[in-house]
Amino acid sequence: MKVSETSADYEKLAQKIYGEILALQGVENIDVRHNVKIKGKSGVKHQIDVFWEYKYAGIVHRVLIECKHYGHAVSLLHVRNLHGLTTDIPNSTGIIVTTIGFQSGAKEYADFYEMGLKLIRKPRGEDWGGCIQVVNIQMKFLRNHYLDFKLEFDGKDEKTREIAEKDPSVLSANSTEIVVRDEGYESCAFNLWLDRHVSAGSDGFGVESQQTLIPENSYLVTPDNRELKLGRVMVTYMSTQFDQDLEIDAMNLVEAVLQDFSSGEIEHMHHKNA
């Protein structure tokens, strides 16, 4: 299976991968560009698929990345050509990335002149090498459905009593759209407040249950931000539950793998939508 549809897509994928590596390694990124022309010492301009420039320990490094989106192994000729570019472009090193591999002699030549031979390819199961690839999660979802409720306010609270005497209509709250605030918490919708205080399934599932709450410091918040202290909350509800199994396969999360051809080491995994 191809990792990219076209050679241009493959070059842009390489650009993304090396950009990610720069970010992870914490070096000072100067540039990662696609399809650029660099003038060499000879005066000749060279087309470079991906030009990677960064600063590490105060030294500017230039990496010339040639991308070979081939269905066959790359020949020694391409490795020698890249070596010629690094000779003409000062302070540069070379990397060739491809999909399949390299022909005989290419590795020896690249090793001698310290050039990198890499594979950017689709992930395979063996890439995880003893690490967890597939995670199976069994999830249990619990939920309360609130059928009815009744509020009683704290008549001993002076501020609540004063508000109620001036405006008795505030005592007729009968919608779950009301807003409630617990001491030390942000205000929230009443059903969310109930979720915080009523444990799902404590009286079983699929049966109508009733519970009386006596909160210590909870307040109904009126639309004009007045607060009335709650005394008791009587709620009728039904708890339900359902199970769901989830499988997470790391193979489905990775778009491409960067692998060193000489050592076989996996150097980076590029995630989908990254």
Chart the SSEs and their pairings.
Layout: H1 7-25, E1 28-39, E2 45-56, E3 59-68, H2 76-88, E4 92-98, H3 106-112, E5 116-121, E6 134-153, H4 158-166, E7 179-182, E8 188-189, H5 190-197, E9 208-213, E10 218-221, E11 227-249, E12 254-260, E13 266-271
Parallel strand pairs: 3-4, 4-5
Antiparallel strand pairs: 1-2, 2-3, 5-12, 6-11, 7-8, 7-10, 9-11, 10-11, 12-13
Question: If you had to describe this structure to a student in words, what would you say it looks like?
Answer:
With 274 residues, the chain is an alpha+beta fold. The chain has helices at residues 7-25, 76-88, 106-112, 158-166, 190-197, and strands at 28-39, 45-56, 59-68, 92-98, 116-121, 134-153, 179-182, 188-189, 208-213, 218-221, 227-249, 254-260, 266-271. The protein folds into 2 domains: 7-121, Trna Endonuclease, Chain: A, domain 1, CATH 3.40.1350.10; 138-245, no CATH class. The chain contains 5 helices and 13 strands. The strands form 2 sheets. Strands 1-2-3-4-5-12-13 form a 7-stranded mixed beta sheet, with helices on both faces. Helix 2 links the parallel strand 3 and strand 4. The longest helix is centred in the N-terminal third of the chain and has 19 residues, at 7-25.
